[in-house]
């Protein structure tokens, strides 16, 4: 794994503060396959960090380790504050509506029903998710499911966002909207980590970290 500066640095990264996420020397193997070997990833409040690398390089694995969902074989992860995690594949309860999900996930993050619904609905609308908030998740389009998946990671107002290709299935307008929103989250002081294959968008990141295969 290597890390280096992004082509441009558009954000107000709070360089004076320490990282709110610091994963260092992460090693992970599945059976005989070594997926990560001494990987590092850090993020500060007020910056967007893009994580890039070939298919199978271990980006999702590294994000899951950072989220605390997977125990690394070596290395350590230090996080401060709440972490929001948007998995690559939406994990939804198929019989529940988007509103039900907002209440359920918002409640798990410590928010009451009203705040979960108002904030979650505002975020869904900002992503162009309209008029489908009361239908079961199984009847949502792929893009609709992905928008809900992304919004669920934001409930509870996490200081660290770990987003694993969060725009899959989004139409062009929603995709552009996602990056605009990511900029506002960064400006609000969140540390936004985005796994992405969209190299044309790397100018939006403050730093780029490459996971080597
Ligand atoms: N639970 C698991 N058990 C066994 N192998 C796994 C497991 N999770 C991931 N792997 C393997 O680890 C390797 C890295 O997977 P990972 O999903 O982290 O890569 P990635 O860089 O995110 O890939 P992509 O760009 O395709 O999303 C792959 O070979 C994958 O098959």
TrEMBL record:
<dbReference type="InterPro" id="IPR003439">
    <property type="entry name" value="ABC_transporter-like_ATP-bd"/>
</dbReference>
<keyword id="KW-0067">ATP-binding</keyword>
<protein>
    <submittedName>
        <fullName>ABC transporter ATP-binding protein</fullName>
    </submittedName>
</protein>
<keyword id="KW-0547">Nucleotide-binding</keyword>
<dbReference type="GO" id="GO:0016887">
    <property type="term" value="F:ATP hydrolysis activity"/>
</dbReference>
<dbReference type="Pfam" id="PF00005">
    <property type="entry name" value="ABC_tran"/>
</dbReference>
<dbReference type="InterPro" id="IPR027417">
    <property type="entry name" value="P-loop_NTPase"/>
</dbReference>
<dbReference type="InterPro" id="IPR003593">
    <property type="entry name" value="AAA+_ATPase"/>
</dbReference>
<dbReference type="GO" id="GO:0005524">
    <property type="term" value="F:ATP binding"/>
</dbReference>
<feature type="domain" description="ABC transporter">
    <location>
        <begin position="21"/>
        <end position="213"/>
    </location>
</feature>
